[in-house]
């Protein structure tokens, strides 16, 4: 497993991009909403400041503005938009090593304030927003290896409490909130290597139960909740190499069924749900290098079709669904290094 971290470090010519990537894998649903919420916050701020200087109709100017700095430098952390609009960042790796601290961004003031510490340092973990508004963090790498522990952040008290342990230590896994509120955690890297195991967290009991195994071991895969309630996992790396395979989890049976293969093997790719329910997967790395291609999964046929290419090859990028249904793809690692370009699907 050490070479994997080595490869990650080689790739980490831009920490920001990796941060974005890790954040976007944290939970496809919550990170998509967190990215779109934070970008709409930026434009709200821009338009309100311009409307004070001009009484004419104003529109937000697209672009990036610097906002408050976090109290701690960090990478490989998570970011979650809370119900009241503040953004919680937690853990990661900073200059003193792995972090247990967390801070809140207030979009009204642009200021970060420290909040409760997690009980464990963790990086490469996943954060999921539960239906009750609490934030569940799972697994990741702690001070002495990968973690099976999980903890809950309560936004109204600003404190963390430990909750049930997973059956397996894991990092680089995925977490998906099912329609019934349970959290499905799948795959990742564990103490014995790549995992095919999956487990369910029940927020009302605070306990985990194992559920069906995926057919393939996978890490650095993506997971997405489909309009029909199934969870789609796609690609990643596993004990049999780079994966183009994809599988569906049925919450009602607790089992996985394999579905169509993607055209390419992909890891460090992104996933987005289009307004018509189709699933867009874009970029990443794979056996043919980093592709600029994108593919669409059709729920009804269970098949993937290649769609328009992106203008750039990208891995470690992010994808966020805008309110109008377009998908915004940002940055990533391209054929000439880190990218500042962004494009819309
Ligand atoms: C968090 O932990 C740090 C040391 O790691 C400590 O200095 C700080 O006071 C703690 N913060 C809280 C809110 O407990
Ligand atoms: C959201 O709630 C937290 C915890 O109570 C608080 O610290 C923060 O200021 C709130 N954010 C906003 C935008 O009101
Ligand atoms: C979780 O596991 C750790 C050891 O890995 C143990 O110290 C802790 O008590 C466990 N927590 C629960 C809630 O079982
Ligand atoms: C499960 O994965 C193996 C490769 O590990 C593959 O040969 C097999 O076809 C897969 N099973 C199904 C049902 O796709
Ligand atoms: C992948 O897509 C390319 C171009 O669309 C096509 O030529 C090729 O046959 C496809 N490969 C597979 C395995 O579907
Ligand atoms: C959904 O929309 C995409 C992009 O417009 C299109 O390519 C795809 O075929 C549509 N899917 C279905 C199932 O209609
Ligand atoms: C997408 O780009 C690949 C090369 O990366 C090329 O082979 C393929 O023809 C392109 N597909 C389309 C639809 O332009
Ligand atoms: C969504 O908004 C973006 C930015 O304004 C625009 O470029 C894009 O064309 C819009 N998409 C749709 C489907 O209207």
From TrEMBL:
Q: Where is the signal peptide?
A: 1-16
Keyword check for Repeat? yes
SUPFAM superfamilies in alphabetical order? Galactose oxidase, central domain
Q: Where is this region: Disordered?
A: 25-59
Official protein name in the record:
Uncharacterized protein
Tell whether Repeat is among the UniProt keywords.
Answer: yes
Q: Which Pfam families match?
A: Kelch_1 (PF01344)
Origin organism is: Adineta steineri
Keywords attached to this entry: Kelch repeat, Repeat, Signal
